Amino acid sequence: MGLFSNPKQSPRSPSYLFPSVIALCLLSLTVLLLYKVDDVVSRTGTVVGHNLEPTPWHVFPQKTFDDEPPQRRAVKIIQCSYLTCRYAAEDITISDSTFEKQPSSDCPDFFRAIRRDLEPWVSTRISKKHIEEAQNYAAFRVVIVGGKMYVDYYYACVQSRAMFTIWSFLQLLRKFPGLVPDVDLMFDCMDKPTINRTEHQSMPLPLFRYCTTKEHFDIPFPDWSFWGWPEINIRTWQEEFLDIKKGSRAVSWKDKVPLAYWKGNPDVASPVRLELLNCNDSGQWGAQIMRQDWGEAARSGFKLSKLSDQCNHRYKIYAEGYAWSVSLKYILACGSVTLIISPQYEDFFSRGLITQQNYWLVDPLELCPSIKSAVDWGNQHPIEVISYAFS
Ligand SMILES: *[C@@H]1O[C@H](CO)[C@@H](O)[C@H](O)[C@H]1NC(C)=O
Ligand SMILES: *[C@@H]1O[C@H](CO)[C@@H](O)[C@H](O)[C@H]1NC(C)=O
Which CATH architecture has domain 233-388? Predict the structure, then answer.
């Protein structure tokens, strides 16, 4: 993942100086690296990932590089402060045109959300100080200069989140060569937003993460699972999406089980999921609530929890977990009617969904009755309710 660039050569230097200067540079760089490696290892912390800790398939081994020769270790420890980040002394500001352009007619409505995300910095712009302050909350920093990406790590992210997120930036650069503007951004990969709007009122910090809320400044970015979540056997969104579609179409909506279904992990400090367990009565509440046993699923290689096999019900419930849940897109892809329990967190795409058009909004304060009335109404009005489903 480390993208190292050669030290830039100044085109004006006399040519006979090059070999010796470069040799000297490389030598001192190597010495510096070997000298600093231990220091860096000890500073690269591992933050225990909020809700992930209790799941048996998740361990947080401190990264050790002991069994590798120092040179390899040096390469693995990506620390751009020594190698790559040419951090300009002047402020990095977002160009005026980014904000001031009016939404054009060919820009989907959905992009409004991005404007709203960046609104806190319309008048102040984003200065070097903003970025430096945001570093206190970030796991890594991504710098893109001239189409090249540099990454600086502060904390190890849980599982493979960092790798897939960085991979996503690389895909972006590959897909739009020459079109990605220079950027310097801080990213955190934990579940919950941290830049509280009240507390950071005087100086909003720009920090990217996988979700946000109305009470936070955090800027949502697509989560790693779009590019893969190998720890629980989830492939890229493109692959999963096609499979889910295929699995879902095996049975027409009318022939699906006329109940609302939820399967997941209720033990993630999510009150709404615990509450949901009380609705597990197909007669009384029209709902089937299943516990995903992660230990069992992990042992069986997640074969039985295959997403494409989970589209057999007319209604599928989305319940937030510890924060937003990556499951929303898989649920929506089922072609069932999605019952979303009024969410608190927003990820980058859920802001584009329209209530009572793309999904059915369930009242968390009247949870079981609200599910029941959706199921009853839908079963009696199949033609109307089916328009809620993505097909
Ligand atoms: C934000 O901070 C304020 C003041 O400390 C606090 O009352 C509020 O609960 C916080 N909001 C969130 C969503 O954590
Ligand atoms: C919900 O009810 C079904 C059928 O009675 C049962 O198999 C399942 O284990 C229950 N779910 C939970 C989470 O208890």
Answer: 3-Layer(aba) Sandwich (3.40)
